[in-house]
Amino acid sequence: MALISFVVPAFRVQGYLRECLDSILGQPETDIEVIAVDDCSPDASGDIIDEYAARDQRVHSVRLSENVGLGPARNIGLDRAVGEYVWFLDGDDWLAPECLTEVAERLRVTRPDVLLVDHVRTHWNDTATRSAMAEVFPESPGPGTFRLRDRPQAMHLLHTAWNRLVRREFLADLGLRFAPGWYEDVSFSYPVLMAAHRIGVLDRVCVNYRQRRAGAITRTRGDRHFEVFPQWHRVFHLMDSWGSATEALRPAVFERMIWHYLTVLGNGQRIAPELREAFFAQITADYERWLPAGGYPVPDGVEGIKHKLVASGRWRTFSALRAASRVRDAARRRARTARRTVGPVARRGARLTRDGLLREYYRAELRRPVDPTLAVYAAYWYRGYSCNPAAIYEVARRLAPGVRGVWVVRRDRVDTVPAGVEYVVAGTPAYYRVLARARWLINNVNFPDFVRKRPAQVHVQTHHGTPVKVMGLDQQRYPIGAGRMDFAGLLRRVDRWDYSVSANSFSTQMWDRAYPATYTTLEVGYPRNDRLVTASPDEVRRLRAEFGLDPDEQVVLYAPTHREHLPGYRPPFDPDRFVQALGDSGRLLMRSHYFHDRDRRPGQPRDWERVRDVSGHQRVEDLYLVADVLVTDYSSAMFDYAVLDRPIVLYTPDWEAYRLARGVYFDVTAEPPGAVASTFADLLDLFRTDGVRSDAATKAREHFRARFCTLDDGRAAERVVRQVFLGEPGERSTRC
């Protein structure tokens, strides 16, 4: 029997579930089990649970055939638990490192019925807010245990299931279960405290309570918030059935009920304006129904006034006071904003630059109708015709001939646009006109901040790689790698997305957490990889001939990634020594990251006959097709090249430094697509001994392909076009 059974329900938490499970399984205390319950989640949460269960015997997967909700899912996990204590942890929260050592020690020493632990609210912008622990217990509560009647202030700690561990036998004897519906914690957490004989408090932060930007119940408007009332009714019915044992606690519980109701009502993101009066009326009804005979401790100040208005049912007065408070707060915000912007506004108004005139032209174009036949394409900050947008453009010309596609390119990249492809040059009036009036905007990065999302426009974010390094909001935890990134601006750009194209389930999971917003995910594979699937042997032979490569030569493509945190960094790679290791029939193609437009060579080889810099080649898919082997480090190139099922070598001389400074989503050296070399000498040995094609390397590539390449069937672009342009039902689309 384990000391602690973690029950982790999972529903639409694929972007966060790995962090949750890792935070549990990575603790020094190992006397645990994890019952992870997939509540028929429409995303990949269930697959993630199965993955963890397959590699760690402490994890038990439970897959439900229908969605039952958080409370019943917890009950199902509880029924399977065998631990002495049960800890209900939500799938989007996570434990603080090494907290379990102290938790386990307290449990073993004091044997409480309930152990309350501290938490922090961790916000999407990487800030944290402390709990009420310090206010509730100004002095450390110490290791002793108590009953709630001796320290009723414990009820002022957040009433959730995840900030308390409960002795399983005590819970079974009590017969307490989670009720269905929203706010299910209420009818569990308060009764548990009231019934416990031994309550302990550990004033150590153990749980990171994630405050999600999108998708959380607390940020969802609707009438389901009325479900808070029956949850509190259940609490009082239980107290009635328990009789005198809890009668002394009734005033304090009543005060918590009214406080909670007012908290829900006061949150503008929960109760819509048209429902507020009815919600207030229900508060008044419950006030009259459950008011203790001897009264209760009414709060002081403004909160006390709210309680009195509830007691008398004075909705108009309550609403007027709230409106006045909001007007006052808004005025203060406007005053602060005006003080910050008056200088810059005055300076901007002093002169109209050419850019300013063009922006005025753009705003004028925004008032004209959207062109229902126009689609605008762009890639890599207007570097030319390439990547996923190019693949979508080509299929759209065939399947949606009524759509006119126009590309945006930089002036210095005009010569890279294929013949017959219509384009506009960035920064020209035509550029602003098509951005303002296009029905569709397709890009593998974000359009500039000035671009406005019109109601009739559809933004398609195709991305340009499966992420190894952390992206988006996750970069906040790695400030060295993030540089001066404007995360608020990033979110404004993300909010323009209607669709996010995903290459695989793993990417979908990471995009969910890195870019939280209300777009629709198209998990269809990467359109640019369609060509890798459909290319014929004749096309490969033709491409090799165009590159001057003989059929019997072994061609290696070396494509390292960019290090944002190390400007000018070049991996320790000697092209001449490398081609010597390849032998007489070896050729090396070197491609630097697209950020290095003006400094492309990753080395300075002497043997230019056998080494070629292909950084300027527009279509990287051509390079994949002609290469027999790929050598890379942490680049997304490995995921694309794996589609070809050819050998891949990871050359990772700075893995630990990169992982710590830049941040990564998974350890590519532990789950590689092939052989791994951490030094240049090791890399040379792999090619001298043909270790790149060893059985171990082949098996690693098979596992990698099974995880990341299952959607690459040559039809990804078609799936995007059919759903986005033609409005056909999607095969693999999920709403975030």
How would you describe this structure to a colleague?
Pfam families: Glycos_transf_2 (PF00535), Glyphos_transf (PF04464). Belongs to the CDP-glycerol glycerophosphotransferase family. It is found in: Cell membrane. With 736 residues, the chain is an alpha/beta fold. Helix content is 40%, strand content 16%. The protein is built from 27 helices and 23 strands. The strands form three sheets. Strands 1, 2, 3, 4, 5, 6, 7, 8 and 9 form a nine-stranded mixed beta sheet that branches. An eight-stranded mixed beta sheet has the order 12-11-10-13-14-15-16-23, with helices on both faces. Strands 19-18-17-20-21-22 form a six-stranded parallel beta sheet, sandwiched between helices. Helix 24 links the parallel strand 21 and strand 22. Helix 9 runs antiparallel to helix 10 and helix 14 crosses helix 27. The longest helix has 35 residues. It is globular. About 1% of the residues have low confidence.
